[in-house]
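Researcher: Let's do a round of design. I'm pasting the structure tokens now; please hold your answer until I've finished.
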């Protein structure tokens, strides 16, 4: 029986995991580090697309959404710094800077003027109304 595995061809982490597979080693990550890809659900009803994107640890001000026709792009940047001091002596200092990005195409153009975004409890919700298509117009030949 053949095993089918879904992989992102551009994910560097997958290359490193393959490199260390079998040796019991895995590349380490910082605790609380952002995931490589934004996990999301896209639902469609008659007039809207609704997107729920999980973005824990991200501030609302650091989220950017761009809509261009059928293409929707979501990006966010995080910065975290922590420092433990004992008097004037620094015992530990950690910094994490990361950026996540996700872009996808929908089946129909989005009406950018009516689109809404809301961020609550680490979940970004986008309500993207479908752009109404104009009916074909017949011209009379004179």
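Researcher: That's everything. Go ahead.
Model: Designed sequence:
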């Amino acid at each position: 029986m053949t095993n089918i595995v879904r992989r992102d061809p551009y994910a560097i982490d997958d290359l490193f995991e393959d490199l260390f597979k079998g040796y019991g080693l895995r590349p380490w990550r910082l605790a609380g580090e952002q995931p490589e890809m934004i996990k999301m659900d896209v639902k469609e009803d008659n007039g809207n697309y609704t997107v729920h994107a999980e973005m824990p640890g991200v501030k609302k001000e650091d989220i950017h959404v761009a809509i261009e026709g059928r293409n929707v792009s979501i990006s966010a940047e995080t910065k975290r710094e922590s420092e433990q001091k004992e008097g004037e002596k620094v015992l530990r200092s950690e910094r994490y800077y990361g950026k996540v990005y996700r872009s996808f195409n929908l089946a129909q153009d989005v009406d950018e003027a009516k689109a809404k975004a809301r961020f609550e409890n680490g979940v970004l919700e986008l309500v993207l109304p479908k752009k109404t298509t104009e009916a074909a117009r017949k011209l009379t030949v004179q």
